[in-house]
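Annex B, item 7. Sequence and structure tokens for protein A, then protein B.
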Amino acid sequence: MIVTWFRYDPGEKGPDPHVHRRHTDAFFVLEGEVEFSLGPQLQRMTGRPGTFAAAPPNLVHTFRNASDSTAVFLNFHSPSLGFGDVLRGHGEEGFDQFDPPADGGRPLAEAVFNSPGEGELIENEKGSRLIKADLPHVTAIDLTFQPVFEGVGLHAHDDHVDLFYVLEGEIEFLEASGARRAGPGTFFAAPRGTEHGFRNPGAGPIRFLNVHAPPGDFLRVVRRG
């Protein structure tokens, strides 16, 4: 997976409509508005902060900033399949991106578009888990934990990458070498086999986006509480 932080100026356009045949292209809006066009008919949908949108393989999509304000968003390619090389100016040859297929590709119903507050909500006294995406290549959860949450101790995943983007509050991330505190805008990634954990060290709630790629079995654990 590759994760990219983008800032689009007012009126800035994204790529032409396209598909990826072997990976999922996903987005999480942080600031402003991003207009997504999804599916065979390029249905337009406006994503505001907290929106998660995703185009699985062979689903036509594009995006732009159609507003008069700056837009900031995260972009996830899972797996990356060379997108980092494209961003670094090494060209698009061999990258998994193609013109829309003649049959229109997958239907709009197979896209993910969850606006702020939308998703599969699971709550308890320690906080809330809002599942924003459950796809074969990636899962995403908007997580909020109260101070009573005791945290998650050091552990490792052998089959997927565990990613965190801090949205609100201050989180203490744990590593084998120690701990570090991080506020909003911080990105933390634990590659396969890397020990990691986290806790809420303060008196207020913490909120972060948690992404697993590939998904592994994490959502089953989340859903059983």
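Protein B:
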Amino acid sequence: MSDSFILRDRVWREQNERVTLSSIATLSEKTEGREEAEEKDAFRTAFERDRDRIIHSKSFRRLKHKTQVFINPDGDHYITRMTHTLQVTQVGRSIAKTLGLNPDLTEAICLGHDVGHSPFGHTGEDVLNELLDGGWSHSENSVKIFSSIEPLNLTIETLNGIRFHPWKYEEAPKTPEGMICRFSDRIAYLTHDVEDAIRAGILSQKDIPKGVTKVLGSPGKQWVNNLIAGIFKASNSGKIDMDEEVLMCMNELRDFMFDKVYLREETKEERIKAKSIIEKLVYTFEKDPSLLPQNYHNDQSSLENSIDYVAGMTDRYAIKKHSEL
């Protein structure tokens, strides 16, 4: 046996996809392309390049200081957008590889799905949605970041999966890999948000609805495994879906978390403070655009430029900038 390396270049990888992936998988050689045409990479497929570009972007790095649920929390073990994104990606890859779908496209979509999130979690998104005519969406903002604010020239498939990953969109992502991200996002945030809430003393395990624990078991990896298994059980006809009983449990858990954790009365004052910070920042920059960095002087309204800048801030930077101004 030779000890020399065997170079598995892009051509080899594309051929390997044809042989190993499912007939409904999105093949990298069949990509619809990018907005600006590029020469193909010698070694990486189109979706591998997307993944690498996202990981090396500034917007991805900022996720480490954006909160998921708890606003600018003390302690090292609370979930941030970064750790959430990595968990979504891990869940997505596991599902994709088991179903024979494209793990590289799945990974690229999952890594980029939340870069457009505003500071202060869901509260920040709600505020920006009120400020902008026509509404504001973190997934649309993710696409805007990668297309114009920090342009990466990603493939159409990756951008589409990022744009349509939220469940609020009736239109599903165009690829099964994008649909995997939609499920993986909810699986990841519900399971780890419950653990965070228990760690913070907001919930105890006995508070969790009995119908949820009966089907999913105890919080933690057992929930993740059973939710993923629910997808494997139902996704056998070329469509990414979830077993009906497991899906009902997941939706019941989501309603429970919004009632008992995300929008609980005890966080009302904190949410009001976060809303005030974002509103004041946006209106200050709208009134005096000279305060905006040069790359946020784009051909759109001052309000939109201000929102783009504030939406990209981390929690701690928004608090710091608010104090300075």
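Comment on protein B: The domain at 47-264 is CATH 1.10.3210.10 (Hypothetical protein af1432).
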